[in-house]
């Protein structure tokens, strides 16, 4: 009895000590509950307030995490969650993504016109970002699973927001089926790891030490199974099949969030997971895992880039573009022995602005001008040069052309790959480098399609419609960082570097 | 620090910004602003050319003049030390001729654009951006900065061809964009390899506190840093890796265990990695030159582009390819240049002959001239591959002279196209009867291009051929028969030009019946004289007084060939010894 009591006090103390490090998550959870409760009231005034409350929550978490100081360095919460610099930077990105999603939602016609479910839409956005934060902080396999499921459940519901549309149902169903499958596979792989090591804490030394003793084949199989779940979240091959359908069925702001938030969180989880593989001492033992990741990255790059060529709608094009970016990120993760974390985080930051910019542009085109297919864009850019030029900037940045930040991101990732190739002389890295760079040529071919229609084809006569000032300002907001981070990338890089080194 | 080079680069950009804020209906003022921007740039270029001291290299200075150097981007990447990108501009004898050419052709292009009707504002905005990026390419001495301008060139060009071009403009624009982008991706791969392997001794000396921060390090300090580097005495975190092209030119600045170090002994497919890097970089610029067999984008782009853009493309954009070879590929990888000289010279000669044969077969006058460009740019490669001072001088002379003459050729095609909206050779007969002045300029352009003594093309071809012939004795780079084959290119050039002249201009006047309705056959107007006369005079001027150019270029070229030959032989033997 006494023992139990002592254990209980100990646990409670640990929880109380660690709780401070979870301030952003606690705030998100609080606002989630608040929104759900307020949504019960029928008053229109309260309903109008809900998006702004959600926005407040995201701004608050963003500020807290930028300022820092709410947690002492490297606090672990019950061996489940670690609040380090990596998690903090990722949290900043997630909060920014949350803010952008709400800003896009407020501009979205279809969401605005919806009669019911306003509150739950914004509540689930909060829950999704909460899950993302937990993903980035997890250092325990079970916690990773829970966090991923939190994100997934929120995602399923958000996909179905516009359930009156036929596409939404199809998208939601596909999403749930693939999600359930990959979650199952991942859980199966985790059970292997637990069996092999007797521990779920995958960042601890014991965990990896036990793995070195285990049969390499078993470790490889277990790792491949676990990566199924991660790949699903970042939409990497061969778990990318849901992406085009979901991108087609979900509301545009949600698609923009899916293309950035879960991808960033998934990458952070993989970053933590492969950290031990990157130790040169273990390199030979885990060669197969590296090989698998390399092949997956190559496959993702090829599938993403080459399938995108044949797409006829803007949404599906962006889906495959998102897959190809997952490939670049995976390739960047394999540059072991270099400071690839900084480059990846830089790339993710740039991706955030590029994707939200493109999706806002697509939302404007779709909402006001009923543009869905690529050919529908004909002449749009000539009629609305400002929007057209902004779209051009985003697409060129996605391609990775200077003078835009997308180029810097790719340059950093490829520099790491080259450096890693110099260290290990692993031909796989060279293949990734060369394939990655040359696929940029393919990428140009499909990204330039929309600007091509915008400026080269037809004449758009429907000049009565006006694009709202807020849309224009938002486009500029997303475009500005792309220029700034190209000409002064050191501003961001030094900051990331500082966060990664001081809070560890 | 004088800001003359920055002004050269950014004057058109400034004009572009002015155009951007002007309302689109003010068509005349927009044109005037564009013209002023181009004129100002030309004025600066001419001023720079006259002030440039061609003998400086001989006096033991570094060779770059009017240098502007600022720290732009610096960041540290953990255990890889610091990275540094500089805003680094400078001219030497090699670039100064290209700067002058860009200034001159830029103005001619604006005058030629005067008749553009569609979306004037957008057109001149893009045109001025193009001028900025081309000028930036010729002045940048930092690889990153160069690459930025090099890539940015594609975008305005893509839209200029795709919106204001001919009937198949969309296809031509996308083909141009993808082709040249793939070329620059090859360059990007090597650029990444280079900057991760090369340190800036100056900045590293600051980092190591050998000299006070910001103070220039003397030669001994630089040598000391390089020696320390080669002895592995500098810790990786103290190294300052750089994109600076002059730093990449010194083998001692390569980090000892890096892949591109001469002694790394690293191979891929049984070729030293440095050779592969050389070939990739070469391929990247060869697409731009363009060299057969990667030239197929050029005829399409030329045929579809509006006249002023064709002029710009032929006269200055192609030169960026040749310039890149001379500025970057050869000095940074002299070993590859020495090892592959026969291949490069051979490709050059192949381009000369193949381009000329294609030109002979064309019915479209513009296509004929596009292929003649391919043929003439082959001479640049031949001269460069010879690595003799005559040959390299000839290569630069050829680039300059071809810039003037091809501008004239495309303008001449534009003249007939404006009047008849057709340029198929077989549709015309005896134009000389109706357009005597026009015919005079066509004859001048054709003869200048085929290398008639008295025009600049003659000097260029002569120098290249002399260089090519002497190469087997002087440098051992090229066998004699290659140059002998190249001479046939001259013969073919005479054939296709004279044949076209005979078919279109001589005999009794006749026009294809379908064209007669819309055709307004008038002779040259004042605007056309304004473009053609200066170009013809310049071609003549540089044909009669070659020293006007050679005095500026010669000493830099002598330094260049000596450096490439010397380093090439040394590094080649090191590379081969580290492998076998």
Automatic annotation (TrEMBL), chain A:
Transmembrane spans: 26-42, 49-67, 87-107, 119-136, 142-163, 175-197, 217-242, 254-277, 289-310, 317-338, 344-362, 383-408, 428-448, 469-487
A single cellular component GO annotation: plasma membrane
Keyword presence, Transmembrane: yes
Record keywords, A-Z: Cell membrane, Membrane, NAD, Quinone, Translocase, Transmembrane, Transmembrane helix, Transport
Residue ranges annotated for the NADH:quinone oxidoreductase/Mrp antiporter transmembrane domain, each copy included: 139-422
A Pfam family the protein falls into: Proton_antipo_M
GO terms of biological process kind: ATP synthesis coupled electron transport
Signal peptide: none
PANTHER family for the chain: NADH DEHYDROGENASE
Subunit structure: NDH-1 is composed of 14 different subunits. Subunits NuoA, H, J, K, L, M, N constitute the membrane sector of the complex.
Family of the protein in this entry: Belongs to the complex I subunit 2 family.
Task performed by this protein: NDH-1 shuttles electrons from NADH, via FMN and iron-sulfur (Fe-S) centers, to quinones in the respiratory chain. The immediate electron acceptor for the enzyme in this species is believed to be a menaquinone. Couples the redox reaction to proton translocation (for every two electrons transferred, four hydrogen ions are translocated across the cytoplasmic membrane), and thus conserves the redox energy in a proton gradient.
HAMAP family: NDH1_NuoN_1
Protein name as annotated: NADH-quinone oxidoreductase subunit N
Species this protein is from: Pontibacter qinzhouensis
TrEMBL record, chain B:
MF annotations from Gene Ontology: NADH dehydrogenase (ubiquinone) activity; NADH dehydrogenase activity; ubiquinone binding
GO biological process, one term: electron transport coupled proton transport
Keywords: Membrane, Transmembrane, Transmembrane helix
Any one Pfam family match given in the protein's UniProt record, by short name: Proton_antipo_M
Primary location group: membrane
Database matches in InterPro entries: NADH_Q_OxRdtase_chainM/4 (IPR010227), NADH_UbQ_OxRdtase (IPR003918), ND/Mrp_TM (IPR001750)
Record membrane topology: Multi-pass membrane protein
Any one GO CC term of the record: endomembrane system
Transmembrane segments: 6-23, 30-49, 87-111, 123-141, 147-164, 176-198, 275-298, 310-330, 336-361, 368-389, 395-417, 438-460, 480-499, 529-550
Compartment annotation: Endomembrane system; Membrane
Record-annotated NADH:quinone oxidoreductase/Mrp antiporter transmembrane domain positions: 140-196, 263-478
PANTHER family: NADH-UBIQUINONE OXIDOREDUCTASE CHAIN 4
Family: Belongs to the complex I subunit 4 family.
Name of the protein this chain belongs to: NADH-quinone oxidoreductase subunit M
